[in-house]
Sequence to fold (166 residues):
Amino acid sequence: MKRIFFIGYMGAGKSHAAKLLAEASGRRYVDLDDAVELAMGQTIQEAFQEHGEAHFRRQEAMVLSEVVDDASIAIVACGGGTPCAIGVDRMLGNAGHVVHLDPSIDVLIPRLLAHPNRPVLESQGRPFHAQEIQVHWKERQSCYSFAHERLTEAVSEQDLLRWMQL
Fold:
């Protein structure tokens, strides 16, 4: 099985898909957000508040590089903003198969509003409203265009089987 990277907007289901594929294939997976929090010794929200987004993104890039270099990791759930960094498209594209999970904004907004503790979706200390989320989502879409495939529906058993055959 080729290494699989899941990318997409916040709430798209990247972590869920990675866990499903890891369970189905018996392969090791990493959730990049979890790995960054472990490396930094604090939550993403704390990192944003204490050090700012630029510092967080530098830490994320270092952890991603370590994950890509670790051949034992077969499945990676990337953070929503990870693919927006310069060079990540080439790094992931060269290291494996990139899947863009892209549910509709109508699916994403309720998920994100139900879990508003995402520092990227805050403005002046308050959570984004649905309209602001939609604007941010549109801005991020170009970050995901390099993916080898785009999935707009929920991950199916056929998807899992197909990825295990890569």
Remarks:
- The first helix runs from residue 14 to 25.
